[in-house]
């Protein structure tokens, strides 16, 4: 999810940087360079009226086409005078990202000097790197058993071969990806080699065949030509090899987790919870930039299990566990924390790791097994675990009355006493399992202040176990500058905003000079919708005595009073009901409750209910059931809030609550005071945002969820319609992109009586390696779906990336804000940007926590001929129009909203899983949907009454 509006900054999760797309577009001149309680309360209704002194009643049981004029191109021409651009769908050649239109932007109200975590990389353009393909197999694989070799073993087998024959296979001149690829600075012998490898001293050695074949010789000169703009095709294979070389040293000396590397050592202060350590690590990538190749490295923190004996681990993680015999009394809790963890054993010397499959049913002293005669002359002999460990390992088992660990796999038993098992280091601890204090500890470590983060990054670059440590990079003739890159930033001026006044007038206001925020004290929203026909639901939890029950009279009074200051009328709710919190998770009961509330309200008022405000005793998984039912089946808006906030009645909270309600009701909270850059005086413009939400890492079946949102008003461009659709598992390409865009254009036309002539699309969640897919598949799909004989709008396509490692740091305190971060509106589009393609970094928000992360905007297609200044200002101005808060956000709103809609689709999918026939015999209406398929579009389809309004904010 995107950062919360309340603190739209801070470190985000990093992901791998893909390969970089190169090339120039056809329209650019070359650039110069649930405690739950059963039962439901009886139902009641509010009396009518809008006075402040009410009391709750006692509970009772064809659109106009647009065309493009065929005139010749000049930068000075208006958009309406620009020539039409050939549709990608009709272009046979592969499209490439557009080139930078100029040398970068010029507009600035401030020019801070910045440091960036990019470290220039020098390489010898005359040297080469040799790519080899590797295949490792068991020489004599056992019949009927899996022959897949664990990845950890592959590296050890490779290291065994290289250490046995260093002249033919020099370890310090090679980099291995752990599976199929080796890159070498020198020529290696090719062919098939035999490797005898044993995991432990008492383990039988296995013979492996190690086959190595040369793939290609890669000349660094090609990369040099690309960086200088002489060639447009990016040498991905060279970058892959160099990236692997820079990761080889930390992969040998640190704990690899995904694409990050963490230190195995820790300080005593780095322990968020018992038995857990918070390890500092980094993620790195190589980036082609205007200054040449650069190593980008950023700091991260992850929780790991400590390396502990199993019994000590249980003392740390199981409440009430003090001594080994407690395993029997607390067996269920012990099983829960141990299952799936990896251990190594101490009774023999071995590198083998075992996964805990469970506990034995019998105590250790009662366990026996059969031992075969090695020569096969005598029948199997039965022996106890106690005797076996004494005879074979000369080890006396101390804890005889507790179960053993079962470390077997594939139905094969392998019983080992707990006292001989130690947790393997480097096992990630799920952050959702951390205690509240542990979560806070880890968050504070992650949210390092800019100066602290900058210092840590520099230390990691220079560390012996970092990317530049050892002799590996040097042997490939690679040198890295150990100082951060200096760059001149620019701060774009904030826009004037339109806000309402309680008397109904519209005024232009200036934002705060440092934080770029504004407030609603003495002001109002631009177009505030009165809350006239609404219902109030109180979902209580009698099992949780820490919460007080809702005071409905006080809540409605406080909300009405706060809205009255904004000049907004709030009538008394038409219906008031109380229901137990568990009802949220019961689809049929919840449906009955919502439908009865809607029916009663319409009967009372003879008009459609605007919204249901739901006060919840605490956060509950049933929230997603409420949203799915109300937004896809019933067609009623809901606004949820927590009991603790509702009872306090804080002015700021209630104002923010109304901002969300107003956006859902079709109101307008804030608008820009001047037209958006490049679109002054032009026809209608539509902004589109698109994103794909993928299931959790360990999920291998659930569909991904695609979401597309688009503005439906102009020139305010702050109200959005949304479409959500399931698609194939982990498929990043939006399969129905064109269809969803066509629907949104049709919705725009119904509302405005004209189709948009200009479309700006913001695509989220793709790396550079997926740019070709976005350009040549998604854009083609959109063009094919929306273009007609008399309608072919011009399109600009921009990728917005938040999952990258680039950070901006003020060089001196006077170059930044009071919290040490760069000022809102800071742009960098030189030195660290692409050598010739159109990209830039924009930090649009104020960072009050941790170190701000800029958004990386990358223009792939541009039929509007934006200059750098125009596009940067347009995006920055749009960041002020986000409906949920009174400050600019870190991500352009179309993408932010697409994130929210995709996440809503994920919640719908979780409802489908929770109520499938496998997990629930009840809830027949949902089960019938889920039995068809998880890809049933109708299950996710938003109700027609809501699909063109902002139900998702």
UniProtKB/TrEMBL annotation:
Matching Pfam families:
ArgoL1, ArgoN, PAZ, Piwi
Q: Which PROSITE patterns match?
A: PAZ (PS50821), PIWI (PS50822)
- Annotated ranges, domain PAZ: 309-425
MF annotations from Gene Ontology: RNA binding
CDD domains linked to this entry: PAZ_argonaute_like, Piwi_ago-like
What's the superkingdom here? Eukaryota
Return the Gene3D superfamilies for the record. 3.40.50.2300, paz domain, Ribonuclease H-like superfamily/Ribonuclease H
**What are the record keywords, sorted?**
Repressor, Ribonucleoprotein, RNA-binding, RNA-mediated gene silencing, Translation regulation
Report the GO terms under cellular component.
ribonucleoprotein complex
Annotated region Disordered: the residues are 1-105
Domain Piwi, chain residue ranges per copy: 611-910
Please give a single GO biological process term from the UniProt record: defense response to virus
Protein family? Belongs to the argonaute family. Ago subfamily.
Q: This chain belongs to which protein, by name?
A: Protein argonaute like
């Amino acid at each position: 999810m995107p950062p919360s509006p309340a603190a739209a900054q801070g470190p985000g999760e990093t992901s791998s940087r893909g390969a970089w797309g190169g090339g120039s577009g056809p329209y650019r001149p070359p650039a110069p360079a649930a405690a739950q309680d059963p039962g439901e309360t009886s139902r009641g209704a509010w009396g009518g009226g809008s006075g402040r002194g009410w009391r709750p009643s006692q509970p009772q049981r064809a659109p106009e086409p647009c065309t493009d004029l065929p005139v010749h191109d000049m930068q000075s021409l208006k958009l309406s005078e620009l020539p039409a651009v050939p549709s990608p769908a009709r272009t046979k050649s592969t499209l490439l990202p557009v080139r930078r239109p100029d040398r970068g932007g010029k507009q600035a109200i401030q020019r801070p000097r910045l440091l960036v975590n990019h470290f220039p990389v020098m390489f010898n353009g005359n040297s080469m790197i040799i790519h080899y393909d590797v295949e490792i197999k068991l020489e004599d694989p056992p019949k009927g058993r899996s022959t897949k070799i664990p990845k950890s073993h592959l590296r050890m087998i490779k290291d065994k071969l290289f250490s046995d024959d260093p002249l033919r296979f020099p370890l310090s001149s090679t980099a291995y990806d752990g599976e199929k690829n080796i890159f070498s600075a020198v020529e290696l012998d090719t062919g098939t080699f035999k490797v005898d490898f044993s995991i432990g001293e008492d383990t039988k050695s296995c013979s492996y065949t190690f086959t190595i074949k040369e793939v290609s010789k890669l000349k660094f000169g090609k990369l040099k030509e690309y960086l200088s703009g002489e060639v447009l095709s990016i040498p991905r294979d060279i970058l892959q090899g160099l990236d692997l070389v820079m990761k080889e040293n930390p992969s040998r000396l640190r704990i690899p987790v995904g694409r990050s590397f963490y230190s195995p050592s820790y300080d005593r202060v780095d322990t968020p919870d018992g038995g857990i350590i918070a390890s500092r690590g980094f993620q790195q990538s190589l980036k082609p930039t205007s200054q040449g190749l650069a190593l980008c490295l950023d700091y991260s923190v992850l929780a790991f299990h400590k390396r502990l004996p199993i019994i000590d681990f249980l003392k740390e993680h199981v409440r009430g566990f003090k001594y080994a015999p407690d395993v029997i009394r607390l067996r269920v809790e012990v099983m829960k924390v141990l299952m799936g963890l990896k251990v190594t054993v101490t009774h023999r010397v071995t590198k083998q790791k075992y996964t805990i499959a469970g506990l034995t049913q019998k105590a250790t002293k009662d366990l026996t097994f059969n031992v075969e005669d090695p020569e096969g002359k005598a029948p199997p002999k039965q022996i106890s675990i106690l005797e076996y460990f004494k005879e074979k390992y000369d080890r006396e088992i101390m804890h005889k009355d507790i179960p053993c660990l079962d470390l077997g796999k594939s139905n094969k038993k392998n019983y080992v006493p707990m006292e001989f098992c130690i947790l393997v280091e480097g096992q990630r601890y799920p952050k959702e399992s951390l205690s509240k204090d542990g979560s806070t500890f880890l968050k504070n470590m992650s949210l390092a202040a800019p100066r602290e983060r900058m210092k840590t990054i520099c230390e990691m670059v220079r560390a012996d176990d970092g990317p530049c440590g050892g002799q590996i990079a040097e042997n490939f003739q690679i040198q890295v500058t150990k100082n951060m890159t200096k760059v001149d930033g620019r701060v774009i001026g904030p826009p004037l905003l339109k806000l309402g006044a309680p008397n109904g007038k519209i005024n232009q206001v200036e934002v705060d000079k440092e934080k770029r925020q504004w407030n609603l004290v003495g002001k109002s929203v631009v177009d505030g919708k009165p809350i006239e026909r609404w219902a109030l639901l109180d979902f209580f939890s009698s099992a949780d005595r820490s919460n007080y029950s809702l005071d409905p009279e006080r809540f409605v009074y406080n909300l009405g009073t706060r809205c009255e200051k904004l000049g907004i009328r709030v009538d008394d709710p038409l219906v008031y009901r109380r229901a137990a919190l568990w009802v949220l998770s019961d689809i049929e009961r919840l449906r009955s409750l919502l439908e009865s509330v809607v029916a009663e309200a319409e009967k009372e008022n003879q008009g459609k209910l605007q919204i249901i405000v739901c006060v919840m005793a605490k956060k509950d998984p049933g929230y997603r059931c409420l949203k799915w039912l109300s937004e896809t089946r019933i067609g009623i808006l809901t606004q949820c809030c927590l009991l603790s906030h509702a009872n306090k009645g804080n002015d700021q909270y209630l104002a923010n609550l109304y901002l969300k309600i107003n956006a859902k009701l079709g109101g307008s909270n804030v608008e820009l005071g001047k037209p958006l850059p490049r679109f002054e005086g032009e026809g209608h413009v539509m902004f589109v945002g698109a994103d794909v939400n993928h299931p959790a890492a360990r999920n291998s079946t659930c569909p991904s969820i695609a979401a597309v949102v688009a503005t439906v008003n102009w020139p305010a461009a702050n109200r959005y319609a949304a479409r959500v659709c399931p698609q194939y598992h982990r498929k990043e390409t939006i399969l129905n992109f064109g269809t969803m865009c066509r629907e949104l254009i049709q919705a725009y036309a119904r509302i405005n009586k004209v189709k948009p002539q200009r479309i700006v699309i913001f695509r989220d969640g793709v790396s550079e390696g997926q740019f070709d897919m976005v350009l040549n598949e998604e854009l083609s799909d959109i063009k094919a779906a929306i273009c007609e004989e008399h309608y072919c709008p011009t399109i600009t396509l921009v990728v917005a990336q938040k999952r990258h490692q680039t950070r901006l740091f003020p060089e001196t305190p006077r170059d930044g804000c009071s919290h040490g971060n760069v000022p809102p509106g800071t742009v960098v589009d030189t030195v660290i940007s692409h050598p010739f393609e159109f990209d830039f970094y924009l930090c649009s928000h104020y960072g009050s926590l941790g170190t701000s992360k800029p958004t990386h905007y990358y223009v792939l297609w541009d039929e509007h001929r934006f200059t750098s200044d125009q596009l940067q200002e347009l995006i920055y101005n749009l960041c002020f129009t986000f409906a949920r808060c009174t400050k600019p956000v870190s991500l352009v709103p179309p993408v932010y909203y697409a994130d929210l809609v995709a996440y809503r689709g994920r919640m719908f999918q979780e409802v489908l899983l929770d109520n499938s026939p496998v997990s629930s015999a009840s809830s027949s209406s949902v089960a019938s949907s889920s039995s068809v398929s998880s890809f049933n579009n109708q299950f996710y389809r938003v109700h027609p009454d809501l699909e063109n309004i902002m139900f998702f904010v």
